Amino acid sequence: MRLRRLLLGSAVAVVLAGTLNVVPVSAGSTPQEPSGQSLRALGARHGLYIGTAVDMAALDDANDPQYRQLVASQFNTVTAENVMKWESLEPTRGNYNWGPADKLVEFAKKNNQKVRGHVLVWQNQLPAWLTEGVANGTITTAQLRDLLRKHITTVVKRYKGKIWQWDVVNEAATDPWDSPPEIHLKGFWAQHLGAGYIADAFRWARAADPSALLFYNDYNLEAFGDKGPGDKTYFVYKMVKQLRQSGVPIDGVGSQGHLGTQYGNYDAFQVKEALDAFSDLGLATAFTEVDVRSQMTAGVQAGDSNEINPRLQASAANFSVLMQACLANRHCLSYTVWGFTDKHSWVPGWFTNPPEGLATLYDENYQPKRAYNSIKADLIFSGPPYVQPRIPQNPKR
Ligand code: G3I
């Protein structure tokens, strides 16, 4: 799959370089002109942080200096794409591998960036010793709960004062295409510990760091549907409302924002409505993992601009819808993309049948795409009265 990905990637990079949609970084502009400024500088006009997930292997690669340079220059918040997940931090029981996560936190400090911690509780990328221990009965339910408390406490304390927002619980809810279609809690933790693990996780995280903002994070939360039993956004809305009413220290909802150009997506008003509903509960909001993938048809792979250009344009429009909605919600604190270059994106390795790609702001040669300039334009051509500075969020006790 890796070979296929590489071949596909280089073909598309070559093709894109020849299309109208590859925009020179700052052609004809001086640093004083807004189009020549970085995303992070333009976001700062609104108090909005612009972030990216960081692939630590790419950041460390001496032969790939542009990756590091762009992470540092374009973004003022970073998220570990993988190295803060439990399987990375504690690959064998009791032995922690802090190195890569520490390195990201140091990089962020050096570059005056905030860090989104990702992720404390998720059913994926758990260490095998944990899942196997539960499966073979050597870890009991009571021990599992203790292990989760210890994990959260250990990780949050290690980075106490250094993490801006923690994704405390990630992707706990089903999707309408799951069975049964009524949205419900899913996965390892709900199965073994019951629904109460969510409130517990937030309380343990708060006890370990009183100053971090604590988020529930999920995908397919961009807009409300019919507010019926199959409406995931509404399910999460009701869940976090209940958590707030019970005094659980939750501070925000992260809407991941993984979109595809082949789907019927939303407009900025619909997305703003969902963000407003969450912030009306007293919660901060954020886009935490934005990317917009496209199907890599034979035409796209062959370089047919009739097929490539509509995808790049649709991708740009979707990035922009989420940015405009975020700008319009004063509690939307950050807009983070899940990788910024098609050279390092989870999409081609994950969606292989049919193949998908083109999901990020820059192509495989680090040339900014239309999507990059679209969100840049949103940051430039917006302001009062409809776009106002962010309202800071204070951690709930
Ligand atoms: O660690 C192994 C490595 O030892 C091995 O050599 C390599 C071979 O391909 O695989 C490595 O593991 C991969 C891991 O990323 C680290 O690179 C896994 O195969 C791969 O499945 C894993 O994918 C990550 C995925 O989460 C796993 O669930 C993606 O990089 C990451 O972008 C993705 O991120 C998630 C967010 O955390 C939550 N929201 C959805 C988002 C996209 O799926």
From TrEMBL:
A Gene Ontology BP annotation from the UniProt entry: xylan catabolic process
EC number: 3.2.1.8
GO molecular function, one term: endo-1,4-beta-xylanase activity
Classification via SUPFAM superfamilies: (Trans)glycosidases (SSF51445)
Signal sequence, start to end: 1-27
Domain annotation GH10: ranges: 53-378
Catalytic activity: Endohydrolysis of (1->4)-beta-D-xylosidic linkages in xylans
Keywords: Carbohydrate metabolism, Glycosidase, Hydrolase, Polysaccharide degradation, Signal, Xylan degradation
InterPro entries: GH, GH10, GH10_dom
Top-level class of the enzyme under EC nomenclature: hydrolase
Family: Belongs to the glycosyl hydrolase 10 (cellulase F) family.
Protein name in UniProt: Beta-xylanase
Phylogenetic placement of the source organism: Bacteria, Bacillati, Actinomycetota, Actinomycetes, Streptosporangiales
